[in-house]
Design a protein that fits this description.
The structure is a single chain. With about 150 residues, this protein is of the alpha+beta class. It has two domains: about 60 residues, Arc Repressor Mutant, subunit A; about 80 residues, Gyrase A, domain 2. Helix content is about 50%, strand content about 25%. It has a four-stranded antiparallel beta sheet with strand order 3-4-6-5. Strands 1-2 form a two-stranded antiparallel sheet. It starts with a helix and ends with a helix.
């Protein structure tokens, strides 16, 4: 439910001029999300929403222009909360995630800037990550499994 709400918040903020938490709460309720101001406040913090100038003396919520995902604690939390399985084969690492979370996890993985990770491809709930060698893939599997546990 939280993931669906976060996706809806992103969509609302990208497409509407939301100036207050109350406005955001009202918009979410239109889509069937029964939320409190405290929940919205936590969601805003978790999503990293910022206030940007939208006119003279007015501000609106916005997604950050560049999300930097190099925070180890945040990465561990992302993996722990969303990754179900990590396995390797040759120089490929396969990650199974909760439905709809593969892109976010892959962005987090790519944001780690590991030298042995050449890149990743994400579907809905599956990520293929390409390592530069079989040994590197196994090291990545071990590291990622620690994050998941």
């Amino acid at each position: 439910m939280k993931n669906k709400r976060h996706r809806m918040i992103r969509e609302i903020v990208e497409n509407q001029n939301i100036e207050t938490q109350l406005q955001l709460t009202q918009e979410l309720r239109k889509f069937g999300f029964d939320v409190t101001q405290a929940t919205i406040s936590r969601d805003i913090k978790e999503l990293g929403l910022i206030k940007v100038v939208s006119g003279e003396n007015t501000f609106r919520y916005s997604l950050p222009t560049a999300v930097v995902v190099n925070n180890v604690d945040r990465s561990r939390r992302m993996f722990r909360d969303n990754v179900l399985k990590v396995v390797g084969s040759e120089n490929i690492v396969l990650l199974k995630t909760l439905p709809g979370m593969a892109s976010a996890v892959a962005a987090c993985l790519d944001g780690m800037n590991w030298d042995n990770l050449l890149g990743s491809v994400a579907g809905d709930d599956t990520i293929f990550a390409l390592a530069n060698s079989s040994q590197s893939a196994q090291e990545m599997v071990s590291r990622l499994q620690e994050y998941v546990e």
